[in-house]
DNA sequence: ATTAAGTGTTGGTCGTACCAACATACACAG
DNA sequence: CTGTGTATGTTGGTACGACCAACACTTAAT
């Protein structure tokens, strides 16, 4: 071994208590869990795909631009993600008869199926992610973060 | 105008209440604020640079590998970030006399100065980020996220 | 003397989030 | 009807944080 040197690995105290730092660490943990879940049960899909499938299942067919606005995903990223979903026949794209530039995207039965599977995986990850908190704390946490996120400013 | 089409922009209900989703939105907001702060007051520095300066100021000179472990930044990214810090004379690198492969990194007075400036900027961003919460809620939020983040595995 | 392990560096990848530019399609004002 | 403006889908970028593999080199352990 080469000089113990005692790396505590602890975070600089400057960061430790700062909300932005803690949120970035929480995100790291969260996206790590999600990434692992998608990797083992997701057939190469990622969060963008899940978001799009969720929007389509909930609100029905929509144009790509609409999807982009509703999911807060950039148009260009919507295009790319839909191409991947389409290649797995989880969605279908068809030209809007009333507007030949626009494409109407529809989720397929297979798409719904996969969405429901992903739901289960993601629910499991919520459990894992929130494990350190009691049920009451979980509710509190979710309420507080919701408030933070809904800030229009 | 081209067909109102009514984009509420609201999130799919599947996502709305999930902790991992909320955390990702919170992180987005947080890193947006930080990015803007660094852009206007940071002289091109980013969060990696701040982390490294903070570690150096708090724990004194360290080798790059040590820094990497203490800040949880990959060795290769430490190398790159230090090169940028060095070019601004905010840190100095010197070969460890006891180990010719190792480089000891030291923060310069200018580095400390810049760190203190960044501290102020980042403190302001905490305020902005936490604005939607009352002081009691802020303490609660920080306590809960800390607990989430300290989860070992 | 070998082997094992740590160190700094180079050169990649991935995922999320953006942005700019473009061709095409449509809506509306005149 | 004609022009102007705006929406749409697509391509091809950028940034940033996080990671990984490989390499040359140095030192420690056996």
UniProtKB/TrEMBL annotation, chains A, B:
Residues 1-150 form the HTH marR-type domain. It comes from Actinoallomurus iriomotensis. InterPro entries: HTH_MarR-typ (IPR000835), MarR/SlyA-like (IPR039422), WH-like_DNA-bd_sf (IPR036388), WH_DNA-bd_sf (IPR036390). GO terms for molecular function: DNA-binding transcription factor activity. SUPFAM superfamilies: Winged helix' DNA-binding domain (SSF46785). GO terms for biological process: response to stress. This is HTH marR-type domain-containing protein. It comes from the Bacteria.
